[in-house]
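[recover] target loaded
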């Protein structure tokens, strides 16, 4: 055989192996990332355990409802006080092997058992599908949707900022609602991009949307983040100007059912009193 065909065969084999590895990563059980965060205003006592989930993108082949049900069992085993879901419940990519209705997509969430409840916001894909339909499906399974609104969960005042990527966010209203209900403020957003404009009174914001890039190449980093800030808020725990942002890599996938260098994850945040303010 001539060298060129051998080289091409090698490239094809390497490409198939990489695609297989990336699919296996996409369907793996999510990594549980942990952080302990001191929040001003929390009273001393037993810390709160908060789970952050995001970007479920329920669709075949990588995220059927059965896989989401297994992830829900994983979340329940962590015994959280509160579950926050940062949007994009719907998987609507063209290359999906199967699409599910909104009701089918969120049905496994009915089994979540956090002590203080499950709160959520919508993402861009939920708006592109049918926001009213997704909202109704969430209500049916006991997930409280915060549409530029806030709710009290124990000592926390959780503000839910609707999706800024599709222009449905109303930050002034959401912040006013947080202040009105009282409690230790925390902001839940689909996208991390509102973070620079969040006031200092809100010490913690959690988000998703970026998938931590979903495809991260060596030396280059994320191919795309869908964030106006590029890599700045693309992934993980960010401390900036005395505030904290936590961005999940999410659970499902978009465009292609592949993940490379950005494994699916959940965040387990332990919220405790600020030891300097007791």
């Amino acid at each position: 055989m001539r060298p060129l065909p051998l080289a091409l065969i090698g490239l094809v084999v390497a490409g198939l192996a990489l695609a297989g590895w990336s699919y296996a990563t996409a369907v793996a059980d999510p990594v549980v990332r942990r952080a302990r965060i001191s929040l001003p205003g929390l009273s001393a006592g037993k810390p709160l355990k908060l789970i952050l989930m995001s970007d479920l993108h329920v669709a075949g082949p990588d995220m059927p409802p059965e896989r989401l049900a297994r992830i829900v069992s994983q979340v329940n085993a962590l015994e959280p006080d509160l579950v926050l879901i940062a949007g994009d419940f719907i998987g609507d990519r063209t290359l999906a092997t199967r699409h599910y209705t909104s009701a089918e997509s969120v049905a496994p969430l009915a089994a979540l058992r956090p002590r203080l409840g499950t709160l959520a916001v919508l993402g861009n894909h939920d708006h592109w599908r049918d926001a009213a339909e997704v909202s109704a499906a969430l209500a049916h399974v006991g997930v409280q949707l915060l549409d530029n609104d806030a709710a009290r969960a124990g000592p926390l005042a959780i503000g839910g900022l609707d999706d800024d990527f599709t222009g449905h966010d109303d930050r002034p209203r959401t912040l006013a609602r947080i202040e009105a209900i009282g409690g230790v403020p925390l902001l839940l957003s689909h996208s991390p991009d509102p973070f620079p404009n969040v006031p200092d009174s809100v010490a913690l914001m959690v988000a998703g949307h970026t998938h931590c890039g979903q495809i991260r190449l060596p030396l280059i980093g994320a191919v795309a983040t869908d964030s106006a800030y590029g890599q700045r808020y693309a992934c993980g725990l960010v401390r900036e100007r005395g505030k904290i942002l936590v961005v999940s890599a999410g659970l499902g996938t978009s465009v292609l059912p592949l993940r490379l260098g950005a494994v699916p994850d959940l965040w387990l945040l332990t919220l405790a009193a600020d030891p300097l303010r007791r």
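[recover] notes: The radius of gyration is 19 Å.
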